[in-house]
Amino acid sequence: MYYLFEFSEIIQAFSHSFAVFVLLLILTRIIGKKFLGQMTFFDFVTGITIGTIGGAYVTTEVNGANVLFGPIFLTIFVFLTGVLTFKSIPARKIIEGEPLVVIQNGKIFENNMRKIRYNSDDLLMQLREKGVFDLTEVEFAILEPHGQLSVLKKSQYLTLTPKDMNFSTNYKGVSSEIIRDGKIVAQNLEQNKLTHEWLFNQLTAQGVSKVEDVYLATLSTDGVLYIDLLKDNLGYVQKIEDDKSFI
């Protein structure tokens, strides 16, 4: 009798999927943080090619419908790896890597950068992405395991906050959706201890006659109701694209 899924083929799908998973894990660690944080077009094509070759290996070695176990096993491996890195710090360091200091007290650590093949152009590019165009402003810069650069500016270049000025501030939380796509979100209205009458009065005060005309209405924590209509009557629409006449 022919069976759609054969045990030996399932074992083969498991072993090949595991081999591909381990290989991709090792290659990712070898390529390093730079690949993750600053992926160029060549890096992107290389990553796609590696993944395609890994997938092709499984599909060519496993016969028939049994190949469908490949993505299932890969998903299980990813899940188990997440559990392992959550419970074990040593495993987390091996699999995910560790943060690496590239600037400390305003001084660049060339040796650390050399370890991960992270050059000065990469550093300057990621600093610019953080709004830093002058190295003299940087106190610390840490390259995170996911390849992004965390930057702490020197105290004299930090943005002044109300706390620095000893100003008291009001609580600011997440806005609540009161109207979505022309329909009242009754649950959020009740959670904010507001009535439909209050809402209709607010709409009338802003020149809105029907709830159905509202695309989105949100209530901020300080009680201000923001309203956006389905058909906004804008006198002028800002264009940021180039004029086609230049083509």
Question: Oligomeric state of the chains?
Answer: single chain
User: Tell me, what's the shape?
Assistant: flat
Main structural class: alpha+beta
* Strand tally: 8
Distance between the termini: 66 Å
Radius of gyration: 28 Å
**Count of domains:** 3
Strand order of the largest sheet: 2-1-3-4
Low-confidence stretches: none
**Order of secondary-structure elements:** HHHHHEEHHEEEEHHEE
Number of helical stretches of at least 4 residues = 9
Describe this structure in words.
- The protein has three domains: 7-96, no CATH class; 100-157, bsu07140 like domains (CRO Repressor), CATH 3.30.240.20; 176-229, 2-Layer Sandwich (CRO Repressor).
- 45% of the residues lie in helices and 15% in strands.
- The protein has helices at residues 7-31, 33-37, 41-61, 69-87, 89-96, 110-115, 120-129, 186-191, 196-205; strands at 100-104, 107-108, 138-143, 149-153, 176-180, 183-184, 214-219, 225-229.
- The strands form two sheets. Strands 2-1-3-4 form a four-stranded antiparallel β-sheet.
- Helix 1 packs antiparallel against helix 3, helix 1 packs across helix 4 and helix 4 (69-87) crosses helix 5.
- It is flat and about 70 Å long.
Describe the secondary structure blueprint for this structure.
Blueprint: H1 7-31, H2 33-37, H3 41-61, H4 69-87, H5 89-96, E1 100-104, E2 107-108, H6 110-115, H7 120-129, E3 138-143, E4 149-153, E5 176-180, E6 183-184, H8 186-191, H9 196-205, E7 214-219, E8 225-229
Antiparallel strand pairs: 1-2, 1-3, 3-4, 5-6, 5-7, 7-8
Helix pairs in contact: 1-3, 1-4, 4-5
